């Protein structure tokens, strides 16, 4: 590991504030990463933290990052997806918890290691998997048909030139390296050196979200959090782009009794479910000071709420 911090935690004071941790509380850090949130949770008095990450490297590094807490039993590290948290908590006899934080997306450690294949700025194998299972980005791009690749670029990258890029990818196969993919995208849509944003940004984001089923994970993770929090427990979720933020916003609106706007053709039906969350806070963005210190925090947004007493709703279970 390099001497610089492996990942600068984003909106950390705001997340810790939203969790309102009391001495002895049991808290879940659903996205352990480099342990930035976990360290603060322990520092403000959490009695026990359960840190989840689907990335085996994050879990392996975590043990050395916070050795005292692991040794004393205050920190339990689990290599698992956060959508599985309620099952893991039950299996380990932990039960309902006082707070849950999710910090969605990739860590700087993942982005900065070329061999993980997340970055178009450093050449590496086209992998992009956070965990170790499932197809790599190269396998997907070399096997999927053009329409499927275009759908992924449009849906998860909001890429207006999805069809053009998908055609260029299919024509350029096989593709094995991140630099090859970045060059194909730049050639396909035209890129001038010094242009404000690299056209490969959206393509890389889209493929990463698809390979890791990140939006499905977020939806299922929110439902798992609803099942895992005790009444009065706090949920804090940080997202990095509008696709993710929309999911969290919609979930908290629905679960707190808000109803979607109706129309003449689509009247609003009364929601028969009792609200499971209350005190939904206004979204929070990084301060000027944080933006200056950590430009990667630019698009971060925190949403938080407090768990009510109503039973968790049935999972939509659309996936799996
Ligand atoms: C933005 S980083 C978290 C950084 C952390 N808050 C810190 O301060 O160091 C996101 C982490 O979440 C992990 N991750 C993403 N999706 C996940 C999921 N569905 N389940 C578990 N971990 C996930 C990634 O592997 C990555 O390590």
Can you walk through the features of this model?
The chain has 320 residues and is α/β, with parallel strands linked by helices. The protein has helices at 12-19, 36-43, 56-65, 67-72, 85-91, 108-112, 137-143, 146-157, 162-171, 178-189, 200-211, 214-228, 242-255, 288-293, and strands at residues 26-29, 48-53, 75-79, 97-103, 229-239, 277-278, 301-307. The protein has a seven-stranded mixed beta sheet with strand order 3-2-1-4-5-7-6, with helices on both faces. The two termini are 36 Å apart. The site of S-adenosylmethionine has 22 residues, from helix 2, strand 2 and helix 12.
Topology, element by element:
Layout: H1 12-19, E1 26-29, H2 36-43, E2 48-53, H3 56-65, H4 67-72, E3 75-79, H5 85-91, E4 97-103, H6 108-112, H7 137-143, H8 146-157, H9 162-171, H10 178-189, H11 200-211, H12 214-228, E5 229-239, H13 242-255, E6 277-278, H14 288-293, E7 301-307
Parallel strand pairs: 1-2, 1-4, 2-3, 4-5
Antiparallel strand pairs: 5-7, 6-7
The structure holds S-adenosylmethionine.
Query: Which spans have pLDDT < 50 for at least 5 consecutive residues?
Result: none
* Ligands present: S-adenosylmethionine
* Average predicted confidence as pLDDT: 93
- Main sheet: which strands, in order across? 3-2-1-4-5-7-6
Describe the global form: globular
Multimer state:
single chain
From the N-terminal CA to the C-terminal CA, the straight-line distance is: 36 Å
Helical fraction: 40-55%
Cα radius of gyration in angstroms: 20 Å
Strand count, sense and closure of the main sheet? 7 strands, mixed
If helices are DSSP runs of H or I spanning 4 or more residues, what is the number of helices? 14
User: What structural class results from the helix and strand content?
Assistant: alpha/beta
Percentage beta strand: 5-15%
Compressed to H and E, one letter per element, the order equals HEHEHHEHEHHHHHHHEHEHE
Q: How many beta-strand runs?
A: 7
